[in-house]
Structure to design on (385 residues):
């Protein structure tokens, strides 16, 4: 772990506290503006009001903790910067209900957060260093993409991107220059994010031990976002947006757990439980719906109501919970946790043989064999008094 000199660490702590205080002040001011303008009539394009405040609080809190405890690690500073930028955007957007300049600021600062800071987090996670010097190019391209996209969003004529009720008051650049900026920004954003993700994949392949567990936490945090993305396709727009906004907080929380190494190895248990219970839920829902349809079709000629079909489906689903859970758990262990599954099977076989074995030498030999198969030590022996 890289340690900073005492004087530099003190300065870094002071800077982290200043950024945290500034983010808190901006977030509080944004909350005040939100409360004062709660009854304002806004178009639907405004979306879920207050989401930058939530992001500002979540990212700032985790970033401040990491930056204060690991000042030499860039991850904490990136999260703290993301929270500060979100706080600026939150203040600008909420103030923008009364002031167009604030809406203008809030309409393009989010680009820095999405297109700039997130790729850098992926590039530097988990130790705050690039995979190699070659990946500096991706960082520089990310900066160029942010400049191009932010300039387009900030100076494009017409309605503001996140405040379409007002036109952009700042349009110093000619239209012939604005259009290429949009192409440059969009053309660079996709390969930059793809390159950052590929860097994380390569880092995972080359990692082991603690670093591998840290990357698992970050990868697992993307699962709720994927669920939110799928849910937004069927949910109303604002409800889907609210779901995505809150689930996005899983990313800084997972990063904080990974960098601070708090309960780091619980990720394997978490992934295992997620696989088991998500599969179990899907199987039970399919069983419930399928039984209702089947029983309803069979009983349609005998009864006009569906209460009996619902009752039978409920009972069948409840009866299948434990058997299905055991089978799914076994299948997940065999497929993804083979070593643990083999160890459990070895212990079961040893326990069965122990009940029937009376020869002490045979028991000792079976015990040593079970230990070697499960724990796999360099040497195993049994000492009997």
């Amino acid at each position: 772990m890289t340690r900073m000199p005492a004087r530099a660490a003190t300065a870094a702590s002071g800077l982290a506290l200043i950024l945290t205080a500034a983010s808190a002040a901006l977030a509080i001011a944004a909350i005040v503006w939100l409360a004062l303008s709660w009854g304002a009539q806004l178009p639907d394009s405004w979306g879920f009001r207050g989401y930058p405040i939530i992001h500002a609080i979540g990212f700032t809190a985790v970033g401040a903790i990491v930056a204060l405890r690991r000042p030499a690690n860039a991850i904490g500073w990136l999260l703290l910067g993301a929270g500060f930028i979100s706080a600026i955007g939150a203040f600008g957007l909420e103030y923008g209900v009364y002031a167009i300049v604030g809406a203008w600021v809030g309409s393009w600062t989010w680009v820095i957060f999405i297109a700039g800071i997130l790729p850098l987090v992926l590039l530097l996670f988990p130790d705050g260093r690039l995979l190699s010097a070659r990946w500096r190019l991706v960082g520089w391209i990310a900066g160029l993409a942010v400049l191009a996209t932010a300039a387009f969003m900030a100076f494009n004529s017409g309605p503001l991107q996140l405040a379409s009720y007002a036109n952009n008051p700042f349009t110093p650049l000619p239209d012939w220059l604005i259009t290429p900026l949009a192409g440059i920004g969009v053309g660079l954003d996709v390969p930059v994010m793809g390159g950052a993700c590929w860097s994380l994949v390569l880092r995972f392949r080359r990692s082991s031990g603690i670093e591998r567990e840290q990357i698992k936490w970050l990868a697992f945090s993307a699962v709720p976002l994927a669920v939110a993305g799928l849910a937004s396709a069927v949910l109303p727009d604002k409800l889907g947006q609210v779901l995505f906004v809150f689930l996005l907080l899983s990313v800084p929380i997972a990063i904080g757990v990974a960098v601070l190494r708090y309960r780091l190895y619980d990720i394997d248990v978490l992934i295992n439980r997620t696989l088991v219970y998500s599969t179990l839920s899907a199987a039970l829902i399919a069983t419930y719906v399928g039984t209702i349809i089947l029983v309803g079709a069979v009983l349609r000629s005998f009864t006009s109501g569906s209460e009996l079909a619902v009752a039978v489906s409920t009972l069948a689903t409840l009866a299948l919970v434990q058997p299905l859970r055991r089978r799914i758990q076994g299948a997940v262990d065999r497929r993804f946790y083979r070593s643990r599954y083999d160890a459990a099977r070895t212990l079961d076989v040893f326990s069965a043989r122990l009940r029937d074995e009376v020869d002490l030498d045979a028991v000792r030999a079976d015990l040593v064999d079970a230990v070697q198969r499960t724990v796999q030590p360099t040497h195993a022996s049994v000492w009997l008094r």
User: Anything to note?
Assistant: The longest helix spans residues 266-299. The mean pLDDT is 79.
